[in-house]
Amino acid sequence: MLKASPTIELIATAPMGLEAIVAREVRDLGYDQVTVENGRVTFVGDAMAICRANLWLRTADRVLVKMGQFEARTFDELFEGTKALPWPDWIPEDAEFPVEGRSHKSQLSSVPACQGIVKKAVVEKMKQRYGTEWFRETGGRFVIEVALLNDVATLTLDTTGPGLHKRGYRKLVTEAPLKETMAAALILLSRWQAERPLYDPFCGSGTIPIEAAMIAWNLAPGLRRSFNAEAWPLVPETLWQQAREEAFDLVRDDVPLAIAGSDIDPAAIDVAMAAAKSAGLAKELRFSALPVGKARPEGDYGCIITNPPYGERLGDSKEVEKALRQLGSVYVHLPTWSTFVLSPNKQLEHYMGRTADKKRKLFNGRIECALYQFFAPGGLYGWRKPEQ
């Protein structure tokens, strides 16, 4: 019979530069035993934590169960260290358990060889528990990962499946779309508040406006999808049901929204509107097909949050320069707004006509970028409205 420890060590993997944001999200879920490392946030929880983390984490890539960690400079050490771990406590007899791997700065540099050794060790451990020589692997999916770094092996089980950026609302995509997790991170880093207007003049498939609306309404980003661990005996269906009921109870869909986006490409706007409809937000968000120079955000004390085209992937560099200059001209006419621009362009501040108040290094995929932050007079939230 499968049996789990009441406490589980979990890892929320994170894009480089976003670890602190992921850690804040984990703590907001009520888990305070948190360790932040490069590319990962480790925390302690229980089986319900697997459900809540997958449903709620907006900026993490995936949620892993940390099975064990040990030094492995030889294949024998890797085999014995892996075999010593409690795989049958998690993996039932009929489970599918493929092995993925990666290695960096380690003597065991052949990833396929390491995957083979780990698979063999897990099978040997499973044989001891289940008394069989052959496993059908027709049941739930338990993806094992062996990650080697500086001759230390970390073995994990992937509770998530397809990355957490796969929210389920985006059926179509534009060229070079911004991941939902990165869009959510930009919004959280901006400290935007739901009562303020938000505008994205390069909205593409609408990811930033949609993620902003989900944050404003406290919609758990994983509500519209499924996860590997839903088929795991140690994370029973009743826990998933309870976690989803909690999430539905926490929705604040009575909060009025002033969120809009525009893009020069009408086809992109069609994709954005379809995604908003799929997310249940079609009536709350406004999208327009127009060049950035004609964008006219409405209201005061708002935020522009945007990811302009880079040139390396989209369009012509002169067109990109023109678009960034137009963004600068729009920004000049919004004196109470703060603007946040994710871009690899080293001339961005020149095009905006001022030095950024703050810059944060981020990676959009493998492209090194900066989040340029231009605060309104009076600080991040702009001028205060006079007392009535």
Can you describe this structure?
This protein has two domains: 8-158, VC0802-like (2-Layer Sandwich), CATH 3.30.2130.30; 180-219 and 253-374, 3-Layer(aba) Sandwich (Rossmann fold). The protein is built from eleven helices and 14 strands. The chain has helices spanning 19-28, 47-56, 75-83, 87-90, 111-130, 180-190, 207-216, 237-249, 266-278, 317-332, 348-352; strands at 8-13, 34-37, 40-45, 62-71, 99-104, 143-149, 152-158, 198-200, 259-263, 285-289, 303-306, 338-343, 358-364, 367-374. The relative contact order is 0.12.
Task: Lay out the secondary structure.
Elements: E1 8-13, H1 19-28, E2 34-37, E3 40-45, H2 47-56, E4 62-71, H3 75-83, H4 87-90, E5 99-104, H5 111-130, E6 143-149, E7 152-158, H6 180-190, E8 198-200, H7 207-216, H8 237-249, E9 259-263, H9 266-278, E10 285-289, E11 303-306, H10 317-332, E12 338-343, H11 348-352, E13 358-364, E14 367-374
Helix pairs in contact: 2-8, 3-5, 6-7
What is the overall shape?
elongated
Backbone structural class: alpha/beta
CATH arch. level architecture of the largest domain: 3-Layer(aba) Sandwich
Q: Which superfamily, in CATH terms, is the homologous superfamily of the largest domain?
A: Vaccinia Virus protein VP39
* CATH topological fold name of the largest domain: Rossmann fold
The end-to-end span amounts to 67 Å
CATH class of the largest domain: Alpha Beta
Instruction: Quote the beta fraction.
Output: 15-25%
* Rg on CA atoms, Å: 23 Å
Order of helix and strand elements from N to C terminus: EHEEHEHHEHEEHEHHEHEEHEHEE
